[in-house]
Amino acid sequence: MTNLAHIMLGLCVAVAASGVAAAQDAASIPKVLQITGEYTKPGKAHALHDKTEGAFVQAMSRANSPVHWIGMISLSGQKRALFFTWYDSFEAWEQSDAALGKKAALTAELSRDYIADGEMVYTEDQSVFVYQDEMSLHPAADLAPMRYMDIATYHVRPGHEREWIELVRMVRETYEKAVPEAQWSTYRQLYGGEGDTYLVLTARKSLAEIDRVLKDNNPRFAAALGEDGLKTFSELTAASIASSEHQLFAFNPVTSYVPSEWIKSGNIWKRPGGSVSSGKPGAEEKKTEP
């Protein structure tokens, strides 16, 4: 497969979702996304790392913290755990940190948890992204019933932002007409990496959705573009994208600290040890199956 064909496939797979829940209003989409990647030592992944990460979830749950995150494990690429923490703004992030800093007992507990977790990890990285509404389509379907996340990363050639914007506009408009059920959220990297880097995020209920994308959505997209559109698509892709990467992750409920309404939905979300956590201290818990 040529590089251009791979990029086109990645664009189409990453941004098309079949049968997802109704999207939220764009005003409710988190504007700031902090992503932490933890690369585990050999033999320290899975249950061992889940245990140390689960301690953070328990501590934040007892403190009834309003800050939430989703933990994920890699299904492709280098073995790693990924954590998405979201905020409405940078000011909200600052206020959350300030509030947590005033809780001495929680701060001490988290410090101990960081030491224990450090024994599992050989390196980690962090980056911060901001939401791009004009590059998203029907964004942020309800994540409570979702189990997987497609993450497509695009590095735009310096000085070719105009071609990139035009490419995204073309893809967005074509999908809106030809594949109206498609949804994705786009974020631009602001801190922690190369400039002109974008993430295209698509949550999925099952991996079977990818089969449907490859079989049905991609041909519909190509047919809607037509011969001339495909030519323009190829030219804009070659001109604007320096490189791209496409990875697949599975949500990990044990290492996630999610809103109480997600847990009440009866989906996969639960606290370490197999019990449901409402995110409120002293809340009654019960056993559930993932």
Query: What is the total number of structural domains?
Result: 1
Overall strand count: 8
- Largest sheet: number of strands, sense, barrel closure: 8 strands, antiparallel, barrel
What's the architecture, going by CATH? 2-Layer Sandwich
- What is the CATH domain class? Alpha Beta
Give me the secondary-structure category: alpha+beta
Shape: elongated
What's the helix-strand series? HEHEEHHEEHEEHEH
Q: What fraction, in percent, of the residue positions are helical?
A: 25-40%
Q: Spans with pLDDT under 50 lasting ≥5 residues?
A: 1-9, 13-25, 273-290
In angstroms, what separates the terminal alpha carbons? 38 Å
Going across the major beta sheet, what is the strand order? 1-3-2-8-5-7-6-4
- CATH topology name, in short, is Alpha-Beta Plaits
Strand residue percentage = 15-25%
Number of helices: 7
Please compute the radius of gyration using only Cα atoms: 20 Å
Mean pLDDT, as a whole number?
83
